[in-house]
Amino acid sequence: MSEKKFKESDAGDGSKATDQYLTGMKLALTLGSCVASLFVAALDQTIVTTILTEVGTKFNDFEKIGWLTSAFLLPMACLVPSYGKISIAFGRKWTLIAGIIVFEIGSLISGLANSMDMLIGGRVIQGIGGGAIQSMVMIILSESVPISKRPLSMTLIGVTFSVASVLGPFIGGAFATHVSWRWCFYINLPIGGVAIVFLLFGFNPPTPVGNLRSKLAKIDYLGTFLVVAGTTLVLLAMTFGGSDFAWRSAAVICCFVLGGLLLVSFIIWNFRFSPNPIILKELVTIPQIFTVFITSSFNFAFFMALITYLAIYFQVVFNASAWQSGIDMLPMVISVTISSILNGIFMRFTRYVKITFTLSNVLGPIGCGILLLLTTSSPTRDRIGLLIPVGVSIGLQFQSAMMSAQLKAPSEVQGSLILSTIFINFGKSMGGAIGLTLAQLIFNSTGANYLEKAIESVDTTSESSPYYALGQTPAKSVISNPDIINSLPDAAKELVIDQFMKAIKNVFYFAIALSAVALISGIFSTNKKLPKSEDIAKKGDEDIEKKHEIENDNDNNPSMITSSSAPHSENTHSSTKQSSADIHS
């Protein structure tokens, strides 16, 4: 009897896991589509960070510039869990195409915006489409390539996501400096169009079974509402508490309380009552999958915090333009790219997943910790070298985390591959949104406090004093605005930068804490290796297994053979036809 082969779960839409493996030109086109669409979605997470001041000046509406980031990250994080069931009902291909189209519409609205409110609305629409893109890209890639070969193709996705996220401020600054900030959004239109064309010609999976009514019945509408509304309210409270609203204000308290109640209701509904749960109970109760969820969440939390505040560090301390700050981030970009490529090769040929996953988690706290060595006068060699360890950590993380979770997805549970991938992506999106929000809170609140205390010791009342401007502008506005800092007289600027460094080091301490949690959680991930190519179930293997089962049953029950070979010729002919039908059913 042959050894049972490794098999991933079927999608639950009538197709088999082995039906969608691609090779040759179709695989190349599908990968090209995934890379192009993910690049613009990841880019837009951070591309606005270096154009906030210019946009605020353009629309004379500085009070709302914080929404330009939140309006994108909030819907993207909140809607990720829902896309799994939607893709099972309507197909991954059309879910991704719909996501790209929605993202493109949001990009066009943002580029054409004639007011801050219109721009924020466009960013919300972008976030809705961006969530679908990030979710579907990972699922389509996972369904197109056998798990033994997946690390190499996953490398492309990991490099694309990480590099686009890090380069976002650089590209945004380049457009703002040399063309127009509107091109931060226009650039998405041709790239998204190419992604759709590639997907139409390269990825043609089986059509999900069922009519429109049965497909709509697969979606958990109540669960979707509860998780989206609850997550949105909690993130809104975290985003604007302590800045636009006091922590004890009715608005913030109501958002926390109502959001928390909705999330608790979602948990009860999803795991106890929902006929089509968004998050499978089987996934949450598998420790090796849940620990990857926790690890990915905390890793992406510190990742988003660092790439945002390192760019600000270069702009404030060294008076770098947005373009130059992007160049200063290149050591991280290069280390992310090289480590991700080497990780894909390592996993493909050794089949070990946990080694690089653990190495990534170990390098996380080390990389975040040595960033504390950055000062207001760090030489170029330090600014290059100190960014490399954290870049390597991020580069090793992407494929390892996803492969670790997919290895433990139960093959007997339909849709578990799709929903486990969605589950990990949900953790990354939520982690990134929460991590950046908390980093902003830590930086702004501690920085303002440090600056207020420092201002008390200098003369801000005399117009001839170099510190006079500090007495005319709220400390909170000064510490968070590189343009204001760089416009100050040298003495005042030096004072502010010293307080700025204290605040940004608090962000680094926060990143250390996040990465430490990821390190501890990652210890409990699976030790399972990737299966060999010859050990993976292929198309037609199920028919062979059924034939072997029938033969074994006949060997164990000879009476069945005797009865089936009766002396009546018509029965013999009928029996032969029926056996053949059974084998191929």
From TrEMBL:
InterPro entries reported for this sequence: MFS, MFS_dom, MFS_trans_sf, Sugar_transporter_CS
Gene3D superfamilies: MFS general substrate transporter like domains
Basic and acidic residues: compositionally biased ranges: 534-551
Coiled-coil segments on the chain, per record: none
Keywords: Membrane, Transmembrane, Transmembrane helix
Occurrences of domain Major facilitator superfamily (MFS) profile (ranges): 30-530
Record-annotated membrane-spanning stretches: 21-43, 65-84, 96-114, 120-141, 153-174, 180-201, 221-240, 246-269, 289-314, 326-346, 353-374, 417-443, 507-524
Primary subcellular site in the record, as a coarse category: membrane
Biased composition range(s): Polar residues: 555-585
GO cellular component: plasma membrane
Gene Ontology MF term list: transmembrane transporter activity
Secretion signal, residue range per the UniProt entry: none
Family membership noted in the UniProt record: Belongs to the major facilitator superfamily. TCR/Tet family.
Name assigned to this protein: Azole resistance protein 1
Organism annotation: [Candida] railenensis
